[in-house]
Design a protein that fits this description.
The chain has 4 domains: 276 residues, 3-Layer(aba) Sandwich (Rossmann fold), CATH 3.40.50.620; 42 residues, no CATH class; 43 residues; 72 residues, Arc Repressor Mutant, subunit A (Orthogonal Bundle), CATH 1.10.10.350. The strands form 5 sheets. A 3-stranded parallel beta sheet has the order 1-2-3. By secondary structure, it is mainly α. The N and C termini lie far apart (65 Å). The structure holds glutamic acid.
């Protein structure tokens, strides 16, 4: 189901960000978020920021951050700007100070066990398990006693009890009643920040106009809209929450991140354009289809075509799509990759055009390069056919008509035709049961090698 577009272009070019935590490599579901942001920025002449949410020093690593950049580059997603949260604590400290001064950030001393006990009591009473704000009612003496006992506080954001509304670019008119939410913890006991506050402080600082992310963040949005206001933002950004990719069984992808990581798909030889097309178009009203370039995909993509229904992702479909993409790739678009396999020179392009339709993975082209360039093991022709083939072999120069002329002459001499003629010739020329059109391969193999293969 298509949702009418909620995005009416403003005079200001949009600023979006993709904000992974570098606590692992990204999978195809994360790539979906990155691509949706990237395409949205490209379509509207905007800016795409890569932000590493690495405030969790224990789990974040430089290696993962670099790996994510490699994965994005492979997909063709190039950030206009890049920063990491671990460089920006001064900004978050200032934001926290501002909230404290406004009475919106308050210290709480409950232990996890105490909170759990309260929660269970509330549920038993049939009350919603919302934090009771007991910390706000502590007397000065009680606070002093807690401090004397060495209890460090964590800090909660005091929500206004209102219904927060926003017009979601994917989900349409959305609202959350903040009275039904617990005041969120923004700062842990050890002074470290949870994701919520740094994210909003950064979005304000970077003038982010559109927060586009997975629907697992919908419930954060009301809190964040209140935070934007509390931190003095003139206006909260627009929000869009896209549906999440699931497996064919409808389960989330997170458990399978290993198999569906961008790195593992790349290593398995899956085409990046297939990954991008499936990641961006699955679960939208635009058909998943093979594309020839990322700009072509960016042109097809439409954020308002994303649906609220689940987006089932099928690995078999990815593999099939990858082959269809591969079979349509121009020589230009694979030139560098072929060069990396030492496939260069005047034969590289005609070989690519002849063989691309037979490939499962791009790297398989090396095998056909060997067939036209190297000594290979072939299967000898039966004696009669061999004699006729040698006798009829035309002189060079050869082109794509040579094959027809040669085989017509052999057919006349031997009476062989169809498979009985072509199959032994294919085995003798290529050593392979099947493959690209021999009319195209023959001039690339050349007369000297053909003589060696059928005469030797
Ligand atoms: N680091 C957060 C995540 O990966 C970012 C969420 C957001 O885009 O606001 O889920």
């Amino acid at each position: 189901m298509t949702h009418p577009s909620h995005y009416s272009p403003t005079p200001i070019a949009p600023v979006v960000r993709f904000a992974p935590s570098p606590t692992g490599r990204i999978h195809i579901g994360n790539a979906r978020t990155a691509l949706v942001n990237f395409f949205f920025a490209k379509q509207h002449g905007g800016k795409f920021i890569l932000r590493f949410d690495d405030t969790d020093a224990e789990r974040s690593t430089e290696e993962y951050a670099l790996g994510i950049e490699v994965d994005l580059a492979w997909l063709g997603v190039t950030p206009d700007a890049k920063f990491r949260q671990s460089d920006r604590f001064a900004l978050y400290d200032a934001a926290a100070r501002r909230l404290r001064e406004a009475g919106r950030l308050y210290p709480c001393h409950e232990t996890p066990e105490e909170l759990e006990r309260k929660r269970r009591l509330q549920i038993a009473r049939g009350a919603p398990p919302v934090y009771d704000r007991a910390a706000l009612n502590l007397t000065d003496a009680e606070r002093a006693a807690l401090a004397a006992a060495g209890r460090k506080p964590h800090w909660r954001f005091k929500l206004d009890p209102e219904v927060v509304r926003w017009d979601d670019l994917v989900r349409g008119d959305s609202h959350i009643d903040c009275a039904s939410l617990s005041d969120p913890v923004l700062v842990r006991e050890d002074g470290s920040y949870l994701y919520t506050l740094p994210s909003v402080a950064d979005d304000i600082d970077a003038n982010v106009t559109h927060i586009i992310r997975g629907e697992d963040h919908v419930t954060n949005t009301a809190v964040q809209i209140q935070l934007f206001r509390a931190l003095g933002a003139k206006k909260a950004p627009h929000f869009a929450h896209h549906n999440l990719l699931t497996g064919t069984d409808g389960q989330g992808l997170s458990k399978r991140t290993g198999a569906l990581s961008i790195a593992s798909l790349r290593e398995a030889g899956v085409e990046s354009l297939a990954v991008a097309a499936l990641a961006a178009l699955t679960g939208s009203s635009i058909a998943v289809q093979p594309v020839h370039s990322l700009p072509e995909l960016a042109g097809l993509f439409e954020i308002s075509a994303m649906s609220r229904n689940s987006a089932r992702f099928d690995e078999a479909e990815l593999r099939a799509l990858s082959q269809r993409v591969l079979h349509g790739l121009s020589y230009e678009s694979v030139r560098d990759r072929l060069a990396a396999h030492d496939i260069v020179g005047f034969k590289a392009e005609p070989l690519w055009l002849a063989a691309r339709g037979n490939l499962t993975r791009c790297s398989d082209i090396s095998d056909w390069w060997s067939v036209v360039e190297n000594e290979i093991t072939v299967i000898a022709l039966p004696p009669d056919l061999r004699a006729a083939a040698l006798a009829a072999l035309p002189p060079e120069p050869w082109d794509e008509t040579t094959w027809a002329a040669w085989t017509a002459a052999i057919k006349e001499k031997t009476g062989l035709k169809g498979k009985a003629l072509f199959h032994p010739l294919r085995l003798a020329l290529t050593g392979r049961e099947s493959g690209p059109e021999l009319a195209k391969l023959l001039p690339l193999i050349g007369r000297a090698k053909v003589l060696a293969r059928i005469g030797g």
